[in-house]
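Folding Problem: From Residues to Backbone Shape
Fields: amino acid sequence; protein backbone structure tokens
RECORD BEGINS BELOW THIS LINE
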Amino acid sequence: MKILGISAFYHDSAAALVDNGTIVAAAQEERFTRVKGDHRFPAHATRYCLAEAGITARDLDSVAFYDKPFLKFERLLETYIWYAPRGVRSFLKAMPLWLKEKLWMERTIRSELGFEGPVCYPEHHESHAASAFFPSPFGSAAIITIDGVGEWCTTSWGVGSGNRIELREEMRFPHSLGLLYSAFTYYTGFKVNSGEYKVMGLAPYGEPKYVDRILEHLIDLRDDGSFKMNMKYFAYPAGLTMTNGAFDELFGGPPRKPETHLTQREMDLARSIQDVTELVMMRMAKHVRHETGERNLCLAGGVALNCVANGKIHKEGVFDRIWIQPAAGDAGGALGAALYAWYQVERQPRLERGDGRDHQRGSYLGPRYDGDTIRRFLDERKAPYTRMPDEELLPYVARLLANGSVVGWFSGRMEFGPRALGARSILGDARSQTMQSVMNLKIKFRESFRPFAPSCLREDVADWFDLDADSPYMLLVANVRPDKCTVMTDEQRGLFGIDKLNVPRSAIPAVTHIDYSARIQTVDAVDHPRYHRLLREFKCLTDVGVLINTSFNVRGEPIVESPADAYTCFQRTGIDALVLEDCVLLKRDQPRFEDAGDWRSQFTLD
């Protein structure tokens, strides 16, 4: 039985295909269209999923859409009526798209796919819960889903067991941890629904000076992690902005304008909302553990991408094991919807691996390109390259990295989710003191404060970090081990804000954030053997089995999908070498790329 899952028309549209319970393919639409966060119907992603399975839409047994459009529309209408006439501008802006497309989802699915079979509509948080539990390695587990808002629900918890999930309690709009965090994302000058991770990265530069103000004025937080928000300070229910004048007055001024200079105030605000988020999530986790008695926890929803909070729940030992859906946001809803239809609707028995591993296989679920296709592309471009077998290529690339080169790494199937996991990655030497600023400013064209994540050999992770667990999806943060850290001088300890950036902090400074933390990806030989071998080759040269791993893209663009995307990014940036499967390209050998100068001029950096 073949089921196609779809998420669309909000942000991060995606498609996923499940065949008899096995996840065959999944991808976000943005990777194909090159429109970041593309919300449109995932036509390209759907075509890819069908092609990967070797079928057409006529071979599908059902299609599952990740939420209930009419229930979401009900929430919008009730909200606009409640706030009328204040929300009239937002209402007039939203209604044409709803009346033209969103309300007629089944008609859209049938016309886009040419599909005449049944269409299933789980609720939004049911899709999140299904994406969290069904691919997990657990036979039973507690489930928590947290995001901005689905239909009405903003947070839910429940239990998964075997082939069933049961959601027991929920919080409802407008009271939302995701929207609270997004309000501060907006207020600190970043883009809502994509800039939240920037707030998380900025937080360690600040002090938690606004925590009490948030807890006193913005939210009434209870012991179980539930809360009510004081809507006097927020405009998002019916407005075109997240916050209002009362919020400005509470925090001492208007929102920061995007791309303007970051001040200590934004850093302190980021730290404060991050601390509050961690407090809320910790209380939720402890409450759910107490209520369910489950030893394992599954997480999904956009807030589950807050890897700092995830790491603290893990470190606290609230649950024995945690599994987080790597595509935790709306894209993962496509996968959750398909799995919901297979298990919850069709009542099929759940697959058991028996080896303690999850069913998502490293989340390498996107397209791959064979050597012939890559070489044909390069030959057409007259791009000089050297073809090497892995026994030559991997030591060669390890030497490039050890000598300070930045390498674009394109290998195997593309990752599903927002993180590059060694299939579409830019790699660098974690030992370099200057690599963070070089990669931020000359390659990623992004803000200098942004931290980079380490890929670490799974067998070495406890040697470098305060973590001895699997973290294959880069969704847990832990500290660098004290014996790997550098003792700061009194003068360095007295620095504030962005002045902390260039202080040496550890033996792997390029992946050590200013609070000595790191967002860790563990790499094992099962899910990504080639990337694991590269890390081992680097360790043979340096005694360090750790590399910088950042997504193969620049700010404002999706992660690369094709060899053409990778080559263009390579040519437009300061990447020194590009690996396209078995082909190695050096920047010094490449012909001039004509649009590089004009392209770079679009970026304004803090």
